[in-house]
Amino acid sequence: MQNPSAVLATTSLLPALLCSLALSQTDAPELTSIVQQVEKAQPENRPKASYQVIRRYRAFGSNNGKITSEVVAEVDFQPPSSKSYVIQQWTGSRHGENVVRHILDHEVESQTKAAGSVAVTHDNYQFTYLGESAAEGQPCFLLGLTPKRKDKGLVSGRAWVDKSSYLIRQIEGELVKSPSFWIKKVHVTLDFGDVRGTWLQTAMEAVADIRLLGSQTLKSELVDYRSDAVVAERTPTLSRIR
Questions:
Q1: Which long-range contacts (CB under 8 A, 24 or more apart) does 155-161 make?
Q2: Which residues partner with 217 through β-bridges?
Q3: Number of structural domains the chain divides into
Q4: What confidence tens digit (pLDDT) does each residue in 10-26 have?
Q5: 33, 102, 137, 148: which sits with the fewest CB atoms below 10 Å from its CB?
Q6: Is 5 a member of any domain?
Q7: What is the CATH number of the domain that holds 55?
Q8: Burial category of 13 from C-beta neighbours within 10 Å (exposed 0-12, middle 13-18, buried 19 and up)
Q9: Does 101 fall in a domain?
Q10: Residue 132 within any structural domain of the chain
Q11: Mind listing the pLDDT tens digit for each residue in 131-180?
Q12: What is the pLDDT of residue 216?
């Protein structure tokens, strides 16, 4: 004979189970809709005109967090998918300049040859819905990112998606593939935002575990933005960022 108390206990769990099933069913369409909107927003907000940005990179060693090198780079974009850069100035360790060049070379290559291969789309990632959060004070959907393949341009981590525009405000996690044998792993944080009507990467922090050297940190910030009209009018100088 079946234990009445066991039947009662099992029956009492049914409402919670049914609620959980209902919740998972409502979450799935929401996640699908969010991803579709993200995929739509990215190409719609690609720059339609040329622009130029000035970035400052700072490298920090594992000892007391002191700056070991500083690099100022000019990055130029020409639609639809051409990007180039020039190192304007560097101080400190030459290694820091080499690291920045490597990063910018990869950025240029990704932009020119296969921008879609590292985009936040279902072709490149599996997504999970993690709830809601905020980035730069703006309400966001928080999505989990799981790369579908090993690519040094893909990140295993999280993305903050602006609830209004469906543009990505922040990505945080580990590169799914190390860019070099000497680098064990890289944890990155990428910030994005509107800069005079253009959605751009505004800041970056990468913490790398490097063989024989330990933890090394590289940070970048956007210090100047120039539209195509401004670039045409004058020759870029460093005076505005000193």
A1: 155/188, 155/190, 158/130, 159/120, 160/133, 160/134, 160/135, 161/34, 161/38
A2: 60, 207
A3: 1
A4: 334 444 433 443 434 44
A5: 137
A6: no
A7: 2.50.20
A8: exposed
A9: yes
A10: yes
A11: 999 999 999 999 999 999 998 889 999 999 999 999 999 999 999 987 77
A12: 86
CA dihedral (68, 238, 196, 154) positive or negative: negative
Give per-residue pLDDT as tens, 104-123. 998 888 776 556 677 899 99
CA gap 125, 128 in Å, rounded:
10
The whole domain housing 194 covers: 38-233
- The token duo for 228 is 């195509």
In contact, 99 and 218? CB cutoff 8 Å: yes
Q: Quote the pLDDT of residue 183.
A: 76
Residue type, 123: D
For 139, half-sphere exposure in the C-beta direction (CA atoms, 13 angstrom radius) is: 4
Asked whether the bond before 139 is cis by omega within 30 degrees of 0, the reply is no
- 9 within a domain of the structure (yes/no): no
- Residue 208 burial class via C-beta count within 10 angstroms: exposed 0-12, middle 13-18, buried 19 and up: buried
